[in-house]
Amino acid sequence: MIARLDALGVVCSLGQGKQAVADALFAGDTSGMRLQNGWIPERSVTVGAVEGLLPDMPAGFEQAASRNNRLLLAAALEIHEEIQDAISRYGVGRIAVMLGTSTSGIAEAGEHIANYINSGVVPAEYLYCNQEIAAPATFLADWLGLSGPVYCQSTACTSSARALLSAQRLLQLGVCDAVLCGGVDSLCKLTLNGFASLEAVSDERCNPFSANRHGINIGEAAALFLMTRADSDEPASGIALLGGGATSDAHHISAPHPEGLGAQQAMHKALNAAGLAAEQISYLNLHGTATIHNDAMESLAVQALFPEGVACSSSKALTGHTLGAAGALEAAFCWLTLSNYNSAKRLPPHVWDGVADTQLPRLALVEAPGALPATGRRYLMSNSFAFGGNNISLILGDLP
């Protein structure tokens, strides 16, 4: 069974909408990464914030208002026509919603709780259900009137990559005929201060795989795919999720296995699921958070799997680490790379200071203007790693 990715809605610090995001992505545009105050006490930090207006909540859904849901709504509105076509074709009971998130509506909840601590009054707009993990998926399904399976997954930074694998499984099992899948996370003080307590946040723009790397930037994003089953009696065309691999090495609650064993296994599983050899991969979107331990282990894992090298880059310097949305967002970057929104067939460039860490294997980081192969089918891999040794690798590619 082939899981076809028919449509994509996306919003992040690179812009709102596929063309704006693609233009900034392939140009290596870091202008969306800005130094801001107010997130961490007595610090200014670089974040990947979405600029510009977000859509208002639909009539009747004002109580579900959160920045997280408004980011998700922006992505959904971009593919609203395709969603309505799917509803007409399959019916509301045969379309599922499967999302990944880590923040849900906790940004607003934090503000409301602070108000209560300071004043003793719970704000009238505070609703506990808006901070529940399932809130984004529930909102989306209710707004669209869908009655298929609806749920969110929260496995930290692999949440939405896992959501794509779960969506594929729903189609394989015949539970539904289409899935709205992806991820969403918004900036909030809870996550920024949490990562700061781990001494993992960089004040400056992050510098993946550099000898001078010293931490992550946090960002926000929403990426929403319409995934359907490519039936054998229909011409197969477009872009598909061809395979994925998931592992949990459980080495440490927050640090990855130093040799990247779980990461290697996830990539191996993805290749096996897609029926591909490592040398068939044209490009790898690295997890590449710019922390000391992540970049070290990922370098070792990639070198072990691709001893001859593979064109690769981290997009974290362009968007920040969007946490629960990162897996879907970086799958979206692979989708855009394969799509008509990338007419020049460029690869996402790796933005850094160019100072390689000599203690690690040298990766084939994309220097602008890297390009996809001119002929033949293209296969792209995207890595997502998370706390607890949770690892996901996805492979997207052309359908014949």
Automatic annotation (TrEMBL):
Q: In which pathway does it act?
A: Lipid metabolism
| GO molecular function list | 3-oxoacyl-[acyl-carrier-protein] synthase activity
Q: Which Gene3D superfamilies match?
A: 3.40.47.10
Return the InterPro entries for the record.
Answer: Beta-ketoacyl_synthase, Ketoacyl_synth_C, Ketoacyl_synth_N, PKS_Beta-ketoAc_synthase_dom, Thiolase-like
Any idea where the Ketosynthase family 3 (KS3) domain is? 1-398
Q: Which SMART domains match?
A: PKS_KS (SM00825)
Pfam families, per the entry: ketoacyl-synt, Ketoacyl-synt_C
**UniProtKB keywords:** Transferase
Protein name, as recorded: 3-oxoacyl-[acyl-carrier-protein] synthase-1
Q: Which organism is it from?
A: Phytopseudomonas punonensis
